[in-house]
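User: For documentation purposes, I need each entry recorded in a consistent format: the amino acid sequence on its own, followed directly by the corresponding structure tokens. There are two entries in this batch. Please keep commentary to a minimum and don't merge the entries.

Assistant: Recorded as requested. Entry 1:
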Amino acid sequence: TRSRSVMKFTEAQLEAAIIELLGEQGFPYTSGADLSMADGSREPEQVLIKDDLRSYLASRYANAGITSGEVDSIIKQLETLPASDLYESNKTFCKWLSDGFLLKRESGSKPGEASKKDLYIQLIDYANVVNGDNIFKVVNQLEIDSLSADNSKRIPDGILYINGLPVVVFEFKSAIREEQASVHDAYVQLTTRYRRDIPQLFVFNALCIISDGVNNKMGNVFSPYDFYYAWRKITGDESIEQDGINGLHTMLQGLFNKERLCDVIRNFIYFPDKSKAEVKIVCRYPQFYAANKLYNNIKEHQKVADGKGGFEGDGKGGTYF
């Protein structure tokens, strides 16, 4: 009966339901209208939440004495990624997001003052995802000025921000109008219309989600539709894979567990070093859970010297297919 009831969802109801479920996962909600207020805090084509990014960087690197000028230089570095070369810009951004980068410090202000060592910057606090300095936020109906010639606005259904960075974009279609709109239409909206009109949003994008409530899939802006895939298990240990409305709950509780989401963003997005095509590969849920189990099992059995002439661990990590 729950699967039948979701068929009655309008897109607005589906959007509200997903925002509520994300709230239960610890992602507070902010209306796009609140970010679009004409108080000078946001340009209409702007997709970063600069206040959140500034707050995160100032808090995360307070002990290193990061200055407001250095914070501004990090934001400027991000903003220099051109939307006109979307693939290369997104590739660079995802590398910074995963691996971090070195910030060249400001010169000493006093004569003879030693220059500061470069500061290693991570845009997400991976060491303490939940209780650290990260700022999570879900925003809906954010009006973004198009970069296309018509100067119109585009309004994505939902954006998940981490530290002011729009790392996940959602697009919803109503299953109640299946003959007019399908989850494939959500894919086209993201990867064709939005990519063409608001490419600046996808410079800072890690993942894309398309959903009609019954069909719920994850991919990225460069993925062919056939590579979008459901997230059918929460922890990976369940014996039954979930689909339909249950699959929606499984995706939101599984992929959108904060630590799991940050793990996917950091360790499970891959760009080939050289590719003539726009290839960006994100994991499916079996790959995510299997790779982590493999890695943890190898670490557990790793054979290392104990400092007493012997070894700890048996070195038997197992055989994997």
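Entry 2:
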Amino acid sequence: MISRKRGFAAAAIFAVAVSGVIAAPSNAASAAQVVTIWNGSDTAAKDQQTPIIAAWAKTQGITINVVYKKDMRNEFIKAVPEGKGPDLMVGAHDWTGQLVASGTVAPIVVGSLANQFSKDMRSGFTVGGKLYGMPIYTENIALVYNKSIAKDPKGMTWDQLLASPRGVTLPWARGGTANDPYHLSPIATSFGISQYTRNNSGWTKTIGYTGPGAAKYAAWLAANGKKFVDGGWDQMRCNVQNGGYAITGPWIIGGLQEKTSTKLILPDGTKQDCVGKAMTADEIGVASFPSAGGQTPHQFSGQYGYWQSVKVAGSPNAIAVGKVLRYVGSAEFQSQFANVKGAERIPANSTALGQLSNKTLAAFGAAGQNAYPMASYVFQDTVWAKIGAAEKALVEGTYTGDPGDYLAKAMKALQATIDAA
């Protein structure tokens, strides 16, 4: 799987098991007004969203019962067919395919809220043209730089960025096993290709790194891949602090505000000591990606949201569940949640995005308006690995023959693997 500092699914899957109740129902509370939510936060203390929901729900006469789970997805899939489990579950959008296939989640109706979410935002929770989840926040990468040192990248080309004094840091390591189609996606898609082809329902199962656009991307990567600065986590932070650019996400914000001391591996292979001064929030710059191939860049986004259990339909608390689901999709909730100190959440709701007090996050959100949600197929890990291995060979010059032919052959083999799955 791709390597990122923070991932939606990883946070939920590896959460520590602990159960708790927020605003536990009293004897007088009607069962019709109790809504149970499963959440993958480590502990109640780290759950920054339920307190907001519970406070609102109290004004509606609704009691929120939240249970913290370790193996949340698998327990949900097992419990719901037995008439058990929660009314709502919150997690990463790339669980949606498996949840829909298991028959445990129901399509939702968002009504007028639909206008508050972009088509790409909704597509993360869409399967077969139906929306199954209410998006609450998203993460995407952008071009990050130090506004007090580096030139504003707006209007700059990739040639200019790569040739700048500190260059561009990409999270990979030459000669190692790392590969990163996630962070290279805005470059690849600017050649008119995407990881899979897309239709009105989102991703298909047909690999999209093919055709003339893919050949041009392969040639570009073979010619320019070596120009990136190697980027471990500390190397990326330090290079940005000293005036370089980086392809990264909002998870770097806190790290940039801390002093860094490390070694950089420059494009020519030499090592250089690097000490980075802690940046202020106002110094952190975020910009959209330039186009390498002439078309619109589309980076990936990870989305987080709420699914509704199929057991809710016809149940006594169905109306209360619907109210909670609409509330978490509202600008009111998402604005409060995103503005919690240390939350570093980009609201999925466009109105809430415009109300962000954290201007750095708002800039990430603006830079991610064309982002594609990551696919959630069961074979997705294989796809990341195979595309990444092909890109790595192009960057390091270990491929044979023409770059475009090499990539085409690798993608043909990958498609055969998918078709046989």
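Summary note for entry 2:
The radius of gyration is 22 Å.
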